[in-house]
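Duplicate of earlier report; Thymidylate kinase input re-posted below.
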Amino acid sequence: MPSEGRRGAFIVIEGLDRSGKSTQAAALVSRLEETGVSAKLMKFPDRTTPIGRMIDAYLRSESDIDDHAIHLLFSANRWELASNIERTLASGTSIVCDRYAFSGVAFSASKGLPFEWCRSPDVSLPAPDLTLFLDISPEKAKERGGYGEERYEKEEMQRRVREIFAAIATEANEKESWKWTTVDAGMDLESVSKSIWREVESLLSADHGPIQRLWT
Ligand code: TMP
Ligand code: MG
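Output:
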């Protein structure tokens, strides 16, 4: 239950494909609600919008799109939901978001697009209060079910993506004021949930100030 006027927390879960993000994000929303914290699950890409449907066709290799153009579509997909994120947080509901702009940078930069260029379309989106990076080795991720169905689910690409996520983590912790935490996602589901909950509990007990802007 939000105490008077307190805004919701914006929690992002990031990681490689098959790192368990979706399972953990859903579990976190349930846990928050059980604790009396109003919470909503979001995910990017949101494949239900017209832009999201273009992204979906691209990921399933039903269409080919230039690397720059698909990058901008992923970003546009976040911008079309940005005001929704702000309204939700302002109303006192917390958001657990399965992937966000960090995936945008990591995946496109791993294809060779310049890092700064990749970041620019997402500058000034609502910034998360906490980013949980579910870290798993590409070898271990590959062993999990369903791997390899979509365009980017290749071990070599995931390896590069993991390196870029690591660079984003370092920078986030050094220069930026929002919090990035790495969680070992190679553990069993319960242990990962516990690690996540520890971080979220300490976030909820703190006072989050106004919503910050990404990379400003
Ligand atoms: P999903 O598996 O979480 O639905 O994400 C689909 C793929 O899209 C995944 O391989 C990561 C990639 N991706 C990007 O390349 N850019 C982005 O901005 C986002 C959100 C995801
Ligand atoms: Mg996937």
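The two ends are 31 Å apart (CA to CA).

Merging into the original ticket.
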